[in-house]
Structures are given as C-alpha cells and as structure tokens.
Design goal:
about 110 residues, alpha+beta, D-amino Acid Aminotransferase, Chain A, domain 1, two-stranded antiparallel ribbon, 3 helices, globular
Length: about 110
C-alpha cells in the first residue's frame, strides 16, 4: 500500500490522517522484506519502506502490525490471515508433539510504502 501524508505533512500513517492506495511492490523489494523478517525471526511483521531513487530503503520494521487501513485499501482481512497462520502453527506444533508433521503455509506478508 502506498501511503500519502495529508497536506505535505511528514507523517503518512493512516491512523493520523494519511491515506492509502494500492501499490504493486517490486520483486526485489519483496525479497528485501522477507530477508528482514527472517533476520528478525518474525513470522508477522510490518515493514515501512521509503522510495529512494529507483528503489527502496527500510524506514522501520514493526512487530505490532497495524493493518486496518491495509484491509480497507485491498478489501481483505489481514487479521484473519494472521489468525489462520497462528492456528496452523499451533496445530503443527501439536501434531509434531504427537509424532507427525504438517506443512505450514508462508506467513502473511504486508508492506507499506510511504
């Protein structure tokens, strides 16, 4: 999601008056976000990127993912995806304790581009 600050203010957080529009993230930026999530050992993470030239730089990585505006922008439910992933993770852990193994889907991924 591309976030835009109102009236050229610095803060583009949607909860503070910014707006969000759909944005297609380039494959190299997606790969960078996945590397960051792995580096931080986080299955669910919010990564804010800043446009710089033809690429992106990381502004911040958040363990507390704010996804209300993202849900509205894309008409999806990130919270439901996170809950489903957590449920499958718990089920897999239980299954492993019982001697089996389950394949887990990839963790949900979201990126906000400022």
């Amino acid at each position: 999601m591309h976030r835009q600050a109102p009236d050229d203010r610095l803060c583009s957080n949607c909860s503070q008056g910014g707006s969000g529009t759909p944005f297609v993230l380039q494959d190299d930026a997606k790969a960078m976000c996945v590397r960051i999530a792995k580096l931080l050992s986080m299955d669910v993470i919010g990564i804010d990127l800043l446009l710089q030239g033809q690429g992106f730089v990381v502004c911040e990585a958040n363990p507390n993912v704010g996804y209300k505006a993202f849900d509205q922008c894309y008409s999806i439910s990130v919270g439901a995806s996170i809950a489903e992933y957590a449920f499958r993770l718990a089920l897999s852990a239980q299954h492993s304790r019982d001697g089996g193994a389950l394949a887990l889907p990839a963790a949900p991924a979201c990126a906000a581009v400022i």
